[in-house]
Amino acid sequence: MAANSEPEVQPWKGLFPSFSLSSVLSGPESQPPSTTTATPPPCLELLLTERSPCTNFTMESIHFDGGFTLFKGRVSTQDVFSFSNSDLVPGKYEGGLKLWEGSLDLVKQLHLQIQEGQLSLRGKRVLELGCGHGLPGIFMCLEGASAVHFQDFNAEVLRCLTIPNVRANIEKESHGALEMNKVERNIPAEVRFFSGDWSEVHQILPHVCGTEYHNSSGSSSEQDACAGYDIILMAETVYSISSLRSLYELTKKCLSRPHGVIYMAAKKHYFGVGGGTRQFLSMVENDGVMDASLTAEVVDGSSNVREVWKFSFK
């Protein structure tokens, strides 16, 4: 599964009407390969000005049925990491240059939740974990969130893809190219970028709760309250069994309580690697501190079943 092969994704069928898109970096049956333990890169905060010029970078439009368009860049792993045929390289690269279907599912569902009045972004702090292209976070930024923080395993992904995507979408809203200082002034939210492994990146994130959440009384109490992130977004982050625990523990450290929510888009099963929504849900259920509800199921007849789940503290 080469990261620079780009078969066209089929339109949605079933729950949602179809939307058009020029191309995405995932095939209908593409799955990340298995990984082994390796030393993760150091945790870093990157600035909006740290956009890196990457050769063969192109920008494309994704048009959604809701009447809005997002821009996304395309860049190959050969240009950024000097290898061309791997979506995962332990300790080096975690598939962030590929646009997975779950990112589009999540944007569509967030738009629907906003339209139906189930999600309000005014004054909200948002964290997108494993952001890659960052389309869900960019959408939340444009829709009025007060702060959007993007996290990816690789600093190179943030420099070569996420940051250029943020800039392109802000310039789109401003109807033209802008100088960097004007881009910063036109961003409607506090935008920050963080790289690092899920087991360590909480050490540099600005909004982390200092104590473990407990639900011994069956309901949230004032002493449990913490000013973490109001909304956490995750798309295609649960493919690897080995990383599920660190991902889940990170969400509990970062999610505002008692009213924070997590939106997770992923495949039901990632065949061959053991992960999927069912494995993550089992972990959440066994922990007993969060409720889970299915908000969308995407069945297009040509790929694995994809789902969008919503989590909140009990």
UniProtKB/TrEMBL annotation:
Q: Where in the cell is it found?
A: Cytoplasm; Nucleus
For this chain, one GO molecular function annotation is:
protein-L-histidine N-tele-methyltransferase activity
What EC number(s) has UniProt assigned to this enzyme?
A: 2.1.1.85
Record keyword Lipid biosynthesis present = no
What UniProt keywords are attached to this protein's entry? Answer: Cytoplasm, Methyltransferase, Nucleus, S-adenosyl-L-methionine, Transferase
What's in the GO CC field?
Answer: cytoplasm; nucleus
Provide the GO biological process annotations: methylation
Is GTP-binding given among the entry's keywords?
no
| Stated family | Belongs to the methyltransferase superfamily. METTL18 family.
This one is known as protein-histidine N-methyltransferase
